[in-house]
Each structure stands twice: as structure tokens, then as C-alpha cells.
Amino acid sequence: MATVLDRPAQAGPAAPVVRAISFADVKAALLAGVEDFNRAPVIGALLGAVYAFGGIFLVSCVFALDLSYLAYPLLAGSVLIGPFVAAGIYGVSREIEEGRQPTLQGVMSTIFDQRQRELGWMAFVTIFAFIIWMYQVRLLLALFLGYSSFGTLSEFLHVVFTTPDGLTFLAVGHLVGAALALGLFSITVVSFPLLMDRDIDVVTAMITSVQAVIASPGPMIAWGLIVVALLAAGSVPCFLGLIVVLPVLGHATWHLYRKAIVPAA
């Protein structure tokens, strides 16, 4: 009589295989992102507008609460949750890749279907990192500038740029922020599109993302700097540039994922 131990174990999903990418791949992914946006500009602009007006809302809130000095770290931290916001964009690129014409209804259905998969846990990781980001800002403010309140943003900037404590806060804050951003970038750079594309667990996705960064540190870091630079540039004209920048980066991230991860068998 066969026992449980005699039965063959059911094989789970194969672990993703990472391959190295080059700077040329980064450039090609960015150009492909622009092309995808041109093929579905309305959907991209609508999803980008959600991110843009979300930034306007957050900044309006901190000014309304007389916390204007938190505007800069809040905006800088919003970059951390960009990959989650762009989840719908990955679906658009996948539709284009498979030869279908993307529709807003189809994209929203794809996003809604993710509630039954691991993407929600990845979103939790990014939101948690954003909370930690804001707490470390408050902690550094208390350590270097005391518990003084700042009535206006100009007053805060004057203290930060003209006093030794303010300059120290600025330097340490950027170093700590860069370390946190690098860590989160490493675990999310391909994990979001990977979770959209395959039915795997969130831990495997994060490990695969870190492996992709280790396999191609130069191109991946260059991609991270491009993302930060473009998001910063898009935020300057009242965040309206993000209506185009976010979808382009989302499409490009999908194509970078395709280059960094070997397709499933």
C-alpha cells in the first residue's frame, strides 16, 4: 500500500532566473516605455494623474496643518511608493506586449484581481517603508534641531541652510534617506512587475529583485537615479509633469523587468 511518503511531491512554481543587464538595456527600456505610453496615452495619463493629484493633496495637507517643513521629506518619500502606484501601468505594457489593445476597464480589472495575490503584501512593504521614512525625519529633527516648531517653510529653510545643526541634519538626513531608498529600491525594482506577471510569493519576489540588483549593480543604480531625477523633474511644475513621467517610468520598468528576468517556461 502506498503511503504519503511514497507519493511524489507537487512541484511549486519555478524560481525566477535572473540575468545581467547593461546600460544599453536601461536605455532601451526607457525608449520602450515612451513607445508604450504613446500607444495608450489616455490610460497612462489617467493613472499618472492619480499620483500627481495625490502629491498635491499631501502637500496641501501639510501646509494646512502648519507642517510645511515636512513638505520636502514627504515628497521625497513619495518616490518610495511610486512602484506600487504604477502597478496598473505594468498591466498596460503586458497587454501591448501580448498584442492586445489596452482598455481602462481591463487595467482596472487587472489591478482589482491582485487582491487575491501577493501584490498587496508588496504594497504593505512600501507603505511601511514610507512610514519609517517619515519617522526617521521626525527623529533627526528632534536630534539636531530640538523640538522647535517652524512657523513657515522659509523659517525652516533658513535654519537648515544657515546653522551648523541645520547643515548636519541635512547631511545625515540625506545619507539615512539614501540608505533606506537603496534598500527599498533593491527589493522592489522588479518585484512589482514580477508579482503582476507570475503567481509567486512576495518573499521570492523580493529576493529575486535583490539578486537582479546584485547581478547588474551599475545599470540598476543608474536606473534608480534616472527614476529619481525624472520624478523630481515631473514634480516641479505643480506635479503636473508626473501625469506623463509616472506612466513612462512604469512602462519602462516593465521592459527592464523583462530584460532582467528570464521568461517563465
From TrEMBL:
Protein name: DUF2189 domain-containing protein
Pfam families linked: DUF2189 (PF09955)
Segments traversing the membrane: 42-65, 71-92, 119-147, 167-192, 199-215, 221-249
InterPro entries named among the record's database cross-references: DUF2189 (IPR018692)
Species this chain originates from: Xanthobacter autotrophicus
Keyword list, A-Z: Membrane, Transmembrane, Transmembrane helix
Keyword Aminoacyl-tRNA synthetase: no
UniProt keyword Membrane, yes or no: yes
